[in-house]
Amino acid sequence: MPPDLRIALGPIALRNPLICGSGEHVRTLEDLTAAIDAGAAAVVGKSANESDAGRRQSDAIAWTFLEDGRREVPTAAASRSASMLNRSGLVQQPWDEWLATLAAADAYASERGAWVAASLIPADERELPRLAADAERAGLRWVELNLSAPHAGEAAPGAIERPGDPGRAGRLTAAVRGAVSGALTVKLAAEHHDVVALAAAVREAGADAVVLVGRHMGFLPDLATRRPVLGSFGGYSGAWALPLALRWVAKTRAALGPEVPLVGTNGARDGGDVARFLLAGASAVQVASSVIVEGFGALTRMLDELSAYLGAQGADARELVGAAADAVLSYEEAAVRSRG
To answer: Is residue 1 domain-resident?
Structure first.
């Protein structure tokens, strides 16, 4: 009998742990439905808000992949170990049109036992509850509040907010929770001193699940031109980030308890990495860079690899959740064990 991939993410029943994460690769109806057809249990659409400046920032979209020696390669030639440096902004469709696209995709997903989530990035906090309520009225069953946008520091003032203060993160979460009755997840950034404190704040404010963690910002000079790669700062991610993200997932599980559903993201490149996120305490995993490189077939590949691993282990997906995180030793305990 094949392993059971079904898993619960708070109030969200997922057919498997794999979620296609937000980005340029999911900004059309065809993209969103293709991710569902490839096997994703859910898709988080490209992030949006009411800001014209945020939409204009997407005029500068660019990315490059970097191999060993910081060597730039075409997207199609990037290996699974390659890192990505990019610029990005918000979805460029008018808000009402984008909501209609998301609602059509979610109706398609619902018929197939899957989900589509609307991703909201704060701009004007007074508008945020309205956007969330708009999404629910349009038929969306799931809203993700994205507090992790790596490009916030490069955005025009008032276009994108990425709060680092737990109190502020909690207030924004509470504003969205008060506007919607459906599922609410909150995505947090990696570049803060205490991600666990942020996770505790958004959970207390009403998040059904917490997504950990967004990408870092980077900067890379080109040795030949002596100018910045891409000409700017950019979001930076790669397979190297996996242990960093896993640490925050495991630390958050340890602090908040196994009853708080977590979603892992940043660094997963194959089914084994998906399993590693589960073992660290995540109930689901968001994947984006592999889809940008390989297309939506990357989702199918990763699910097949995860199934093969579970089959070899004689385990179902839900049995993995937290198994490694719950076995972590303190340094003192590790020293005693090594002496024994």
So the answer is: no
For the segment 285-298, what is each residue's pLDDT rounded down to a tens digit? 999 999 999 999 99
Above 90 in pLDDT, residue 309?
A: yes
Tell me if 45 is assigned to some domain: yes
Instruction: For residue 194, give the CATH number of its domain.
Output: 3.20.20.70
Ramachandran angles phi, psi of 45, nearest 5°? -65, 165
d(C-alpha 139, C-alpha 193), whole Å: 37
Which distant-in-sequence residues (6+ apart) come within 8 Å of 227 by Cβ?
Answer: 221
CA dist., res. 182 & res. 214, Å (int):
23
Separation CA 148–CA 168 (nearest Å): 13
In terms of Cβ atoms closer than 10 Å to its own Cβ (0-12, 13-18, 19+), residue 156 is middle
Q: What is the pLDDT of residues 246-304, one digit of tens each?
A: 999 999 999 999 999 999 999 999 999 999 999 999 999 999 999 999 999 999 999 99
